[in-house]
Design a protein that fits this description.
The structure holds three protein chains of three kinds. Chain A is 49% helix and 12% strand. By secondary structure, chain A is an alpha+beta fold. Chain A has two domains: 44 residues, no CATH class; 319 residues, Cytochrome-c3 Hydrogenase, chain B (Orthogonal Bundle), CATH 1.10.645.10. In chain A, helix 5 packs antiparallel against helix 6. The relative contact order of chain A is 0.18. Chain B has one domain: NADH:ubiquinone oxidoreductase Nqo5 subunit (Beta Polymerase, domain 2, 2-Layer Sandwich). In chain B, 17% of the residues lie in helices and 26% in strands. Chain B has three helices and seven strands. In chain B, the strands form two sheets. A five-stranded mixed beta sheet of chain B has the order 1-2-5-4-3, covered by helices on one side. In chain B, strands 6-7 form a two-stranded parallel sheet. The radius of gyration of chain B is 17 Å and the shape is globular. The chains are: A alpha+beta, B alpha/beta, C mainly alpha. Chains A and B meet through helix 4, helix 9, strand 6, strand 7 and strand 8 of A and helix 1, strand 3 and helix 3 of B.
Chain lengths: 377, 156, 345
Amino acid sequence: MNPHPAPALERAHDDETYYLNMGPQHPSMHGVLRLLLRLRGELILECDPVIGYAHRAHEKMAENRSWIQFLPNTSRIDYLSGMIYNLGYCQAVEKMASIEVPVRAQAIRVIVSELNRIQSHLLWFGTFLLDIGGITPFLYCFDDREKILSILERVTGSRLTYSYGRFGGVSQDIDDVFIEQTRSFLTRMRKQAPMYHQLVHENVIFRKRCEGVGVISREVAHDYGITGPTLRAIGVDYDVRRAEPYSGYEQYDFEIPTRTGGDCLARFEVRIEEMEQSCRIIEQALDALPDGPVKPAKFIKKLKPPAGEFYFAVESARGHFGMHMVSDGGDVPSKIKLRTPSFSLLSSMSEVLEGTMVADTIAILGSVDVVLPEIDR
Amino acid sequence: MSSLDLSNLELGSEEAEYSSVGFHYIHRAQAGRIVAVAEAFREAGYHLEMLTAEDRRTDLEAMRLVYTFSRLDQLDRHMVTVDLAPEIPGAQAPSLAGIYPAANWYEREVFDMYGIRFDGHPDLRRILLPDDVEFHALLKDFGRIEDAPDEGAANK
Amino acid sequence: MPRTLLDIFGNPFIATGVGIGAVMTVLSINVLFCIWFERKVSAWIQRRLGPMEVGPQGTLQTVADMVKLLGKQLLTPAGIDKPLYHLAPLIIFAPVVASASLLPFSKSVALSDLNIGLILVFMFGGFAVVGIFMAGWGSNNKYALLGAMRSVAQNISYEVPLLLSALSVVLMVGAQGGGQIEIGDEVIQLNGLNLSHITLAQTSGLWFIVFQPIAAVIFFIAILAETNRAPFDLPEAESELIAGFHTEYSGMRFGLFFFGEYSNMFIGAMLATVLFLGGWDGPLLPGPVWFFFKSYLLIFVMMWVRWTFPRLRFDQLMAFCWAVLTPLAIVNILVTAFALKVVNG
């Protein structure tokens, strides 16, 4: 099925417009996104995001393996917030099957999830600046990100695609070294944050590229179900961690940073502040870390949640990650639908990108932070 | 924005236990009424959080569409299910793309994965799978690993 | 006045041969050095080491890269405009050699000494845009075409403030010491378009950067834009246009573009040195040492800028040129002319 039949291409020749396939192989297409653009000069008249190049059939896989066996898949949906997805899946199944999670395990989940969020935001920071032509910040934030990856690698055994969650807890307890490393990372992060701000935020070219660029209105956000930092940059203080707390998030004192601009700069500022808020949450969780077990005494080998339909959500680094699960009472899921925040974001892009320039496209796509594997699943 | 009024839409509505299922209400709607239902939700300030389908041909003899509507300012999640004819191809439902633009891609995905067609969809074509394949991947009779043993190891 | 190659050898053919050989050698060494230097500067700015493996401090890394480029297959895409595609790297490369031969690096010897040196340098500089456009058009690639279109618009626009800021220096030369200068027992009538004379005019007094700070800044910015360096590297903005006009070039054809870019940078820096930093003028050390030291200092600043700033958007780039730099340069010329009239009577 050719999305644009021949007459459209003919017309393109007549009226001095042309098509440009941006991606799937392109230096700044965040994985394997392809934007089919109709351009006049550098002005975008139409934009059609073409996805599916990284489709790995996670939802089909879910229907062919048991609830437990699907666990490693979850962190591979979005490789940048694998921990959040992994633990999100765990807590969803726990709620379905009414499995209690020890308080220590809940606190650990919060800590590692927030570390994961900072890591994801740091990577976004680097790639976003890279997209608008600033190469140096990328190297700076990867330096910090590396610290998080090392911390998480030590406790989970992997650097990106963690399979740390277990139904009823986490696979490993954290030790004093982890706590010490995390604390020293927080100190370092707080020292670095003003540097990031100075390095980038006041830069006149950066502001020119971001201010008023890619404004997403409240209506568009509502129409497309946009969530996460992009929504908060419009001024809606929606955060799953606050709206429907899970894993004990209600105990922690943190703010939901918002801006009203809805442009690239607002999204930038929201994410930078979110990193600080994540640091606060980690600090509180470390201070009040309860003792006790981190997983059930007996490993859950067999899991048969009650039949029914379920919907549970967590806040990933990109927004509302929902799982619609259907159980027929057996040990294999009848269906798992993964509602990923990037999918909603990208579906709005054909509207948002219309009328912008090619250079803005890159800046906008960079600032909303889509991760293609979670769109394609 | 008015409050949610679903009274004259003949929905089979039930309250649900949020803490165990994750939503507050579940409604069973007729396919013909889903547009009116969506309009009521939109009118009341809800957004379309998710749209998907389920292949329930073996147990319910139906293809089921699942819509989730939710609010950003307060916790109130409604799940709406629509049962369609169990024939693929053949199952059809009205498109919500005109009411919620978010439905555009969700419906394309449902069409791609389940083969359910949506009337009035502006651009109903495959989204994740290649354009030229002839299967709908999430149908239960496609690619199922048969005879999974009981002991929790479906892919042994 | 510097002796030219023609004065030394007498025979124009020998002089030309020696000149081309010398320029090619200097430019090649410069490119090898600059690429290594750029890597080290960026590494230094980005808190890392840069190349360390090949040779001491990675100094031979560029040599290794060049060997790699030479050994690579030259891919020729289908549907190209063959003459344009194949000529483009040469068109970019040849004027660079020509304009490099015009620059006076020493008091006593020059490759050539022409009364219209400045005009020739700008003329050869203008050739680059033709080559870039040929590459973009001939490649049959939309990214390349977009990059070429950006480049043409950018280069033509920035040529205006570039020339205007250089013009204020020309005015200054003509007014220096009543337009005459004595060297030994020789009295030279200063010519503002002769690059040696521009340098000579500065040796007797202060460098022109003192009198013309605004023109110097405008000139430097315009040089950045003319050489497609960040933050004006839109023609090859890799996050938008992959590699811009040279997307479809591989192997040594790409190498020639690379060569052209770094040589252009070098020439831009040398020209700025001649116009504003007194050329070979400096105490103690011999003239060429000062000349190259100043040039590389400017190249360092170019690199510093590149690794610090994000990239401008195209419309902002053009607005900056036409709404800021050009009016400023014009005002600067008027003020210069007026001040010279007042001072010199």
